[in-house]
Design goal:
- Helix content is about 50%, strand content about 10%.
- The chain is built from three helices and four strands; from the N terminus they run E-E-E-E-H-H-H.
- The chain has helices at about 50-65, 70, 75-105; strands spanning about 1-5, 10-15, 25-30, 35.
- The strands form two sheets. Strands 1-2 form a two-stranded antiparallel sheet.
- Strand 3 and strand 4 form a beta hairpin.
- It is elongated, with a radius of gyration of 25 Å.
- It starts with a strand and ends with a helix.
């Protein structure tokens, strides 16, 4: 029978070949309930350095596309510093909101 290998998308021709004994990691909740690893979807942490880069890059594009000559004709090193400063300010605000949401959940 035909099947798709999930990791690569490759179509393979397979047939039943018995069983496979394996160990699966188990996670436990504080109340004692246990869950096999494959039954859980884990939250992904935010990569703040990547986010900082993306925001800074977007700010540089905003500076260069601005029609105000005071903004788009500034020195590149100054604009880069401002872009990072804006990114840092936005990230600090986002982290506050994330912390507040986490605190409200508990």
């Amino acid at each position: 029978m035909k099947a798709k290998y999930k990791n690569t998308g490759e179509i393979v021709d397979v047939e039943p070949a018995g069983s496979l004994n394996c160990t699966v990691a188990v996670y436990q909740e504080k109340d004692g309930r246990k869950f096999p690893m494959y039954a859980l979807e884990f939250e992904k942490g935010i990569d703040w350095e990547q986010r900082r880069y993306e925001i800074s890059k977007d700010m540089m594009a905003a500076f260069l596309s601005n029609s105000c000559s005071n903004i788009y004709t500034g020195y590149p090193d100054e604009q880069a510093k401002y872009a990072v400063d804006f990114a840092d300010a936005l990230i600090a605000e986002l982290k506050k909101e994330t912390k507040n949401e986490t605190d409200a959940d508990h």
